């Protein structure tokens, strides 16, 4: 009976992780910032609806504001979840979905809330901080996605070089 020593079997080289702690911290802080952003924007929306004079221009901004806040509320939890899972699991599909949700609904809605005609100072501060936070997250997510794709490609090449493909021999 022949004994196989683990020392003599070829071993795959260990690959460094492509996750980003900075990106994870940004996502964690964004959860807190999103709660404050929703509280301030939601309370100012209530005040604007009941106490501002109703002209056609303000009614259009109020409709845009409500629709924008609704889109933001719907898109924010899945966006943060996709960024969190994509970073920890090193899944490029989740990170690309995070980038798309950041670029399309979140940035335009937040910028639209920043440039509205009747705005309070607390709204301006929260919208400005959210825009800057989204921009930093977007850039960081691009860097993380590139690292994840490179790491996954390298793992695939190593797996192919060591003869362990996903196909089964028939």
UniProtKB/TrEMBL annotation:
Q: Which residues cross the membrane?
A: 21-43, 49-74, 95-115, 127-149
Q: Which controlled-vocabulary keywords does the entry list?
A: Membrane, Transmembrane, Transmembrane helix
Recorded hits in InterPro entries, A to Z, give: Uncharacterised_TM-17 (IPR019184)
Note the topology in the membrane. Multi-pass membrane protein
Q: For this UniProt entry, what is the primary localization, expressed as one broad class?
A: membrane
Which compartments does it reside in? Membrane
Q: Does the keyword Transmembrane apply?
A: yes
Lineage of origin:
Eukaryota, Metamonada, Preaxostyla, Paratrimastigidae, Paratrimastix
Name of protein: Transmembrane protein
């Amino acid at each position: 009976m022949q004994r196989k020593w683990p020392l003599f079997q070829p071993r795959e080289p260990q690959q460094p992780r492509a996750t980003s702690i900075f990106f994870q911290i940004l996502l964690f802080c964004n959860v807190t910032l999103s709660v404050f952003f929703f509280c301030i924007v939601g309370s100012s929306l209530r005040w604007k609806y009941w106490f501002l004079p109703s002209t056609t221009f303000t009614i259009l901004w109020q409709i845009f504001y409500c629709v924008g806040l609704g889109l933001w509320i719907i898109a924010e939890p899945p966006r943060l979840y996709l960024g969190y899972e994509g970073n920890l699991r090193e899944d490029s599909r989740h990170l690309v979905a995070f980038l798309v949700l950041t670029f399309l609904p979140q940035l335009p809605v937040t910028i639209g809330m920043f440039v509205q005609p009747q705005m309070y100072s607390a709204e301006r501060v929260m919208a400005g901080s959210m825009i800057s936070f989204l921009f930093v997250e977007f850039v960081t997510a691009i860097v993380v996605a590139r690292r994840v794709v490179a790491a996954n490609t390298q793992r695939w090449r190593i797996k192919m070089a060591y003869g362990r493909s996903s196909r089964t021999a028939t």
